[in-house]
Write a structure and sequence with these properties.
Rossmann fold, 8 helices, two-stranded antiparallel ribbon, alpha/beta
Length: 178
């Protein structure tokens, strides 16, 4: 069985690539891959759940997804984002509250267990196709996030699984390769 993990910054073509390349595969979108987290996200966006508490909800969702994959390895899956994005995008907050090292260790242990059951490929999209601010990048530095992705995916735990994906697109009638 295969497990494809799609990672990278926003606006790099991940979701479009996944829809085209992996039609017919079982997909899990993280965060938000489970019904209960849709409601939790709504509460968070309405200010009913503080950011400090939401990081625990998201951690729980990632652990649940990894455990689901571990115990249900009867087919190949595609993860449109994973705990890797969580560790990159929430790094500052997790460090601030003292959870980064613990959560990283627990998630990596589960990742290691998955690597025994799946042939894993992490498809890393590092080139932004659209240079505009969006929900996350309005408040975060895209270069810093890219550096965080590069640093994390360069670690021994992940590096042997990583394939860098460059997207080609047409912009204003010109063929551009990234």
């Amino acid at each position: 069985m295969y497990l494809y993990i799609i990672e990278g910054l926003d606006k790099t073509g991940k979701t479009t690539y996944t829809k085209n390349k992996f039609a017919g595969y079982s997909k899990i979108r993280l965060p938000g891959g489970f019904e209960y987290t849709h409601e939790m996200r709504r509460f968070f966006m309405e200010g009913k759940i503080p950011h400090f508490e939401m990081i625990h909800v998201i951690f729980g969702e990632h652990m649940a997804a990894l455990q689901h994959l571990y115990y249900n390895n009867t087919e190949s899956y595609v993860l449109d984002r994973s705990f890797i994005s969580y560790l990159v995008y929430q790094k500052e907050l997790l460090i601030k509250y003292g959870y980064y090292d613990t959560y990283k260790k627990l998630l990596e242990e589960m990742f290691g267990r998955l690597s025994e059951k799946y042939e894993i490929r992490i498809l890393y999209f590092s080139k932004r196709l659209v240079q505009r601010k969006d929900d996350w990048l309005e408040y975060m530095d895209a270069d810093e996030l890219k550096n965080n992705f590069d640093e994390l995916l360069g670690q021994e735990t992940y590096s042997r699984y990583v394939d860098n994906i460059d997207i080609e697109c047409k912009c204003n009638g010109k063929h551009i390769s990234y």
